[in-house]
Amino acid sequence: MIAFVRGEVAALTLTSAVLEVGGVGLELMCTPGTLATLRVGSTATLPTSMVVREDSLTVFGFLDDDEKQVFELVQTASGVGPKVAQAMVAVLSPDDLRAAVAGEDVKTLTRVPGIGQKGAQRIILELKDRIGAPTGARLAGAPATPAAPWRDQVHQGLVGLGWSAKEAEKAVETVAPDAGPTPDVPSLLRAALRALSKA
C-alpha cells in the first residue's frame, strides 16, 4: 500500500496532480480543494489511498490524513465506490460529513452528486456507529489562491463532479460575489455545489 507520496509537483490537470518521485511521475486523483493548494515546481507531501481494480490501479491524493481516513471509511458503506467517496470529500469536509452522519442529515448528504435519498439513508445507517464525532481538526479556510484561477478551478471541479459546463458556469457566477480579494477555492466550490443542489 502507498501511504503517502512526497515529491515535486510536475503537472496539474482538472482532476489530478503528477508528482515526481524518484524519477517517476506518479498521477494522484485529487479533489479540487486539494489541487488548489498545489503549485507546479513546488514540493508536496500528500497522504494517499490506492484503489486496485481488475483493469486499473488508481492512487488518490488528499489534503490530510483525516480526509484520507474518511474517504476510505465511506467506501465501506454499500454502493459507495471511490468516485462517490471522492465526491463526498470534495463537497463536505471530514467534520461536515461526520456531523451529517451523526445528525442523520439526509439533505446534506444528498448535495453530493451520485448520492440520492436512499443512498444517504444507507450511508447514515451503516456508518453512524463508526464515523465518530466531528474533531474540529481542520481550521476553516484553506490556503488562498490567486484571484484569476479560482473561477477555472471551481468550474472544472463542478464539471469533474458530473455537472454540465452550463450549470457550472451559472454556479460560478452565483458564488463570484463571495470570492473577495483572496478566494478560498474549497469554500467557493462547496458554495457552488450548495447553489446547484438548490436549483
Tell me briefly what this model is.
Helix content is 43%, strand content 18%.
Topology overview:
Blueprint: E1 4-12, E2 16-21, E3 24-29, H1 32-35, E4 43-52, E5 57-61, H2 65-74, H3 82-91, H4 94-102, H5 106-109, H6 117-127, H7 149-160, H8 165-175, H9 185-198
Parallel strand pairs: 3-5
Antiparallel strand pairs: 1-2, 1-4, 2-3, 4-5
Helix pairs in contact: 2-3, 7-8, 7-9, 8-9
Protein name: Holliday junction branch migration complex subunit RuvA
Organism: Nocardioides currus
Family: Belongs to the RuvA family.
Tell me what you see in this structure.
- This protein has 3 domains: 4-61, Beta Barrel (OB fold (Dihydrolipoamide Acetyltransferase, E2P)); 66-127, DNA polymerase, domain 1; 149-198, Helicase, Ruva Protein, domain 3.
- It is 43% helix and 18% strand.
- The protein has 9 helices and 5 strands.
- The protein has helices spanning 32-35, 65-74, 82-91, 94-102, 106-109, 117-127, 149-160, 165-175, 185-198, and strands at 4-12, 16-21, 24-29, 43-52, 57-61.
- It has a 5-stranded mixed β-barrel.
- Helix 2 (65-74) packs across helix 3.
- The longest helix has 14 residues, at 185-198.
- The chain is globular and about 45 Å long.
